[in-house]
Amino acid sequence: MRILVCIKQVPGTTQVEIDEKTGTLRRDGVAAKMNPFDLYALETAMRVKAAAGPDSEVTVLTMGPPQCEQVVREAFMMGADKGAILSDRAFGGADVLATSYTLSQGARKTGPYDLVVCGKQTTDGDTAQVGAELAEWLGIPHVTNVKSVDDVAADHIDLTVDLPDCEVAQRIPFPFLMTVEKGIFEPRLPSYKLRCATEGREILWLALADMPDKDPRHYGLNGSPTQVKRIFPPELRVERIALGGDDKKKAAALADLLEERKFLR
Amino acid sequence: MNEIWVFAEQRDGALQNVSLELLSKGRELAAQSGYTLCALLLSENGEALAPELFAYGASKVYVADSPRFAYSQNDWFGEAVCRAVREQKPEILLFGATSVGRSLAPTVAAALHTGLTADCTGLEFDSEKKILLQTRPAFGGNIMATITCENHRPQMSTVRANVFKRTRVDGASGTIVRLGIDISDVPERMHRVSATKEAGDDANLAEAKVIVSGGRGIGGPEGFGLVRKLADALGGSVGASRATVDAGWISPLHQVGQTGKTVCPKLYVALGISGAIQHLAGMQSSDTIVAVNKDPSAPIFEVADIGIVGDLNEVVPEIVRALEARRA
Questions:
Q1: Is A3 helix (H, G, I), strand (E, B) or coil?
Q2: Given B88, B175, B190, B312, which residue has the most CB atoms within 10 angstroms?
Q3: Is the ipTM of this complex over 0.90?
Q4: Residue B74's closest CA among B105, B53, B40?
Q5: Partners of residue B260 in chain A, C-beta under 8 Å
Q6: Do residues B115 and B177 touch, judged by C-beta distance below 8 A?
Q7: What is the structure's pLDDT at A24?
Q8: Cβ of A233 and B306 within 8 Å?
């Protein structure tokens, strides 16, 4: 079985600052790491691989500037077999549609795959929509909110989806894409042994010229139907009312405020 | 067509609140744009829910019915929405950011090659340029971005529950348009085996109007008894910080924060939560934030509208009593 995991390098913190002169994000000096949700996707892929048998392999795919090689190396240390990086200036500034399209081209180039696994969302873009759009571009069904993989068979997977009001058991034949919940499995730690073993492993670098579709209008900023018009700091309307007195007084003051604001039913 | 569409999501025959909230917002957008506000209803039982959609502002309800719409099967819903959109060409298409909407909206956006802005907290119509201004938080709420989709249609957004207010329109009525959409030719690529309701689980944080959360300061798993008491008194759901989940005091279903759930209730009460940045990222867009903590320098007070410094084992029972007294 061939399994693809999409991963992303994200800033190490969400404490971003806006450059007041240019109105853009200050990114310099911010440490980068693998999107934490992707660790669960990778772990899930490793478990599926183990259940599917010896001729299975896990490929990780990422898109970004050259330094994102770091997260592919980290995936190798967790057991991924192959890695590919989509890196080209033409891919920059991509929104959800262009990002998912570029990933789909990378998947077509390196695939085909029986199963694609994505994390629930990233911590920077935070849209949780790239996985679903990728599936649409690949012409395969997708399932989100997967909380457990219950059985891996030769032609399908049985899994459980966590919805707000119920759990749904589904049987999905390959090929398909799933996005997994945090906590589906405990991600393994990167192994020093694997680190040594994979140090020289070749990574497939793919640029626009390597894509099946080489039309630059379909990638990056040009291929993005949405534009960011403005970024600004959120209006934090914090009232900062400190309630004093003894416990009874504080409690009464709070109850008054909550009643005033119609929180008492 | 100059229309604004709201996807009317239903669960077990009842419309989701977020769809009604979107209709209320849609009325404002319709007034700003002169467009017609419409709802798109995929249903196994025809137009039964149309009157409620009119009551929240829809002037037109598009209905497609099929036994296949008994529950959300993303392939079928996606294909039906795409066919309806290709036929009627609305300018704007809005979905609730529910588990259904989060699958359906991107499927439709990719199939139609258009833009999609997730989790908008602000929607406005620029009547000069005739485009939708979509504002959403990014980087865990640390910045806001206004996003447009100028050259592709429809302009698509998802919006979470409780972000917009829903208001009924008195004596409203409208027209019902039946779409002759037949999706019986779409293959079944996913098989639903069974659906189990989780009994007595109140962790539905995404749609909760009131959330009371516990952090390390509640002292142990038994501390959630106190949290739950206050949550019950306020008719809210129970949330938790990552520390308490990692310590095994409560199920991860309750976790609020960057790696848990992002919530925006009307009222968020943080009990014994110090306010790590990852937690704040998941709750700081709540309308009113109340914090109870014994440490006056806890960062949670930076975002709290109402702060109480004190021992929560003493204060919280007093709060519960005071609330009960006012209700009586």
A1: strand
A2: B312
A3: no
A4: B105
A5: 182
A6: no
A7: 57
A8: no
